[in-house]
Amino acid sequence: MSLIFHIVARTDIGCHRERNEDHILVGRLVKNRGWMELIVADDDDFIQNRGLLCAVADGIGGAPGGNIASNTALSALEDKFYHHEFELVQVKSEDCVQHLNDIIIETNQAVLQKGYEQAQWFGLGSTLTGVCLYQQQYWVFNAGDSRVYRYRQGFLTPLTDDNTLAAEAIKAGQLTVEEAKHSGLSNILSRFIGSNDDFGVTISDATMIEAGDCLLICSDGLFNMVNDEDIEKYLSEDNSPRELVNKLVDEAISAGGYDNISVILVTVSASS
To answer: What string of DSSP letters covers 192-261?
Structure first.
């Protein structure tokens, strides 16, 4: 069965920030404002040979040049991924994971190098979270606290773990979820693009995608304002992908819009 990917992306400054420190990437297009839409089949030669990247980058709050960091991260990811002499066709899944890992390490170096160019940019950092679609499967990658969710048959499932000190403390049994909310550790990233430390990115194994699935990639400006139960409810509504994305962003703004909000929604349907 052939599949159709309907991709809608939107990024918004929110209500309180002076500038948008988020950027979004779909394919080869990086944006810092507005929205975009793409409909493509799984047998399209671009997806068949190269894969389609969809990603969100959120410049680290309070760091100088957060918008520069997120732009640099996604521009470098796009450039290095699509100019590399590597095609996904007939390549083993573990080789694709290694390829993505190598590309993201190079992306980390690009952000580090950008931070050395001007004194006010020293310490640039950004989250980097997204999926690589290839035929009827995908890989998820994550560094930071932006997220990827999968909505399938009425249920929303997180596909990434937040790389924060709070999340690590919960996992280690040092804090409860409620304690972590008030610990001040939720805003401290343990892993991000632009890190001088031993950088690491989490990349999933290849996962098959099904007709009816939705993949949601978003910055914390969405899920800090709209909880998972409400996101699940909105995705269950019978609306077009564009209406769903606008609903999610508008709900985050209505809830206060304290941060920049970026959403990419990949809706999967069977080809008629």
So the answer is: -BT-SSS---EEPPPEE--TT-EEEEE-HHHHTTS-HHHHHHHHHSS--HHHHHHHHHHHHHHTT--S-E
Map residue 91 onto helix, strand or coil: coil
> Which residue from 120, 155, 119, 150 is spatially nearest to 137, judged by alpha carbons?
150
Q: Which helix (H) or strand (E) holds 177?
A: helix 177-181
Alpha-carbon distance values, 242 to 133, 149, 205, 264, 267 (Å):
20, 17, 29, 10, 10
C-alpha to C-alpha distance for 251 and 36, rounded to whole angstroms = 19
Domain boundary assignment for the chain: 3-161+190-270
Q: Is the dihedral of CA 163, 167, 169, 170 positive or negative?
A: negative
pLDDT tens track for 131-175: 999 889 999 999 999 999 999 999 999 999 998 888 888 788 887
Q: Under a CB-based contact definition with an 8 Å cutoff, are residues 137 and 207 in contact?
A: yes
Spatial separation of the C-alpha atoms in residues 220 and 240, rounded to whole Å: 23
The Cα 133–Cα 242 span in angstroms is 20
- Cβ-based neighbours of 168, under 8 Å, separated by 6 or more: 190
Token pair in block for residue 199: 């950088």
pTM of the model: 0.94
The superfamily CATH assigns to domain 3-161+190-270 is: PPM-type phosphatase domain (3.60.40.10)
Facing residues of 263 across strands? 10, 218
224 contacts 146 by C-beta, under 8 angstroms: no
Is 94 strand, coil or helix?
helix
Q: Tell me: the pLDDT tens digits for 63-103?
A: 778 999 999 999 999 999 998 766 655 555 677 888 899 99
